[in-house]
Amino acid sequence: MGLAFGLALYAAAAPAQGPRITERTKQKQVAESERAGLQKKLGDLKRDIQQTEGAREHAADGLAQSEQAISEANRALHELGAEQQQTRQKLADLTQQQARLRKTVQAQQGQLAELIRQQYVSGNEDHWKLLLSGDNPNRINRELRYLGYVPQAQTRLLETLRVNLREIEANQAQAQNAQDELEEIAQEARDQKALLEKEKAKRVTMLAQLSNKLTAQRKQADGIQRNEQRLGSLVNRLSQLIEEQQKAEAEARKRREIEAEREAERKRLAQREARRAAQQAKNAASQGKPQAKKPPLDAIDDDEPPAKSYGRNELTPQTLVQLNGSERAFAALRGQLRLPVRGELLAKYGSRRNDGPLWKGLFIGAAEGSQIKAVAAGRVVFADWLRGFGNLIIIDHGNQYLSIYGYNQAVLKRSGDAVGMGEIIASAGNSGGHEQSGLYFELRHQGRAFDPLEWISLR
């Protein structure tokens, strides 16, 4: 049977299918479902802050929807680019694997054809010749055993061939899925690019309409003060949310550890009882006595407190020290951090904003679209638009240290994403109604801003 014929048989047996749903689509649905809860919490938090400060109108609010759409389209393009690269590599790997499998199958088919030809030519004559030869019976027996190995080898070869044919079929399905995913990604990228261009044009029009009002509001010291208060309120509520989440995770982890320990104790008791029953059976057999009846496993007392032994994920005193040490890792980076974007340092911490309040962070002038990088590893706790700061991203570095990045053209990460030091998280811009493109950058500990330049190496 040729390879094409074998695969055709598999294809003929396969049931008819409707429109194909790729694995990528399924994974995206799961990820969106998991992210929905966090997004709801952050949305409620933003609405709460807006209600608290009152309904003060600001010209930049008219840009919010467009700037959010630009950010989301850029983020989608960034994610799609990474996905496309990974999927192309996956497809290349599958293609190489397919070539190796086909080569193996062709070799096995040749071996099988040769075995069948030899068996057809010889028939059963070799067996009869040996039996009637009158030779040494030991030699006859040995030769017959050797001849018996031929059909055994043929059987093993057939089974290996079947396995490889199934692997080829699975490989083809995976390759088709990867190809479908690439087509999905390409179409989504085209849609996002069209949306991005549309929203950029919309923002340009709105900026022109709001230009005079934005210029006047930028000069209002009380407006800058309210922006700072808004950010401070957001940071405080995020810190509370982080603390609540950490407590919930610690409690859930503790419950899992207790259940795992109970299950381990049940297994230990069951193994002990099995050994005891086996020993009783052995003793009874050696003494000719009837075996003792084995007590049921459900008679084991589950309420008995298990002996304390720390599992792999348990928070022992030693691991607590390690966890606290990892949280303090950010503090150990003082003087070693790098600026999140290359550009000109236009405003420093503590300097005055014209006649307004003091800067609580740095303003770094940078071309629109310049890469913004995380100053240290952490987890994104906010990635949204906020009045006064435009597209804003906040990273939690543990032990109540936060880094804050504002005025972005786009935030390229989502709330809940883990990021590494130096990882691209955003692109510079002038969102939020700001005149000059760049990045507003803050560092905070326990909610209070401090001078980033004391932590950053400018070499």
Your description of this structure?
Helices cover 59% and strands 12% of the residues. The chain has 459 residues and is α+β, with helices and mostly antiparallel strands. It is built from seven helices and eleven strands. Among the domains are: 58-217, Helix Hairpins, CATH 1.10.287; 336-454, Distorted Sandwich (Glucose Permease (Domain IIA)), CATH 2.70.70. Strand 4 (378-386) and strand 5 form a beta hairpin. Helix 3 runs antiparallel to helix 5 (137-218). The strands form two sheets. Strands 1, 2, 4, 5, 6, 8, 10 and 11 form an eight-stranded antiparallel beta sheet that branches. A three-stranded antiparallel beta sheet has the order 3-9-7. The chain is extended. It has helices spanning 3-13, 23-53, 61-122, 125-131, 137-218, 221-287, 317-327, and strands at residues 344-347, 362-365, 371-373, 378-386, 390-396, 401-408, 410-411, 418-419, 424-427, 438-445, 448-450.
CATH topology of the domain at 58-217, what is it called?
Answer: Helix Hairpins
Residue stretches low in confidence (pLDDT < 50, at least 5 long) are 1-16, 295-327
**What characterizes the major β-sheet?**
8 strands, antiparallel
What would you say the CATH architecture of the domain at 58-217 is? Orthogonal Bundle
Looking at the structure, what is the overall shape? extended
Number of helices: 7
The top level CATH class name of the domain at 58-217: Mainly Alpha
GO molecular function: metalloendopeptidase activity
GO biological process, one term: proteolysis
Keywords: Hydrolase, Protease
Region (Disordered): 16-43, 252-318
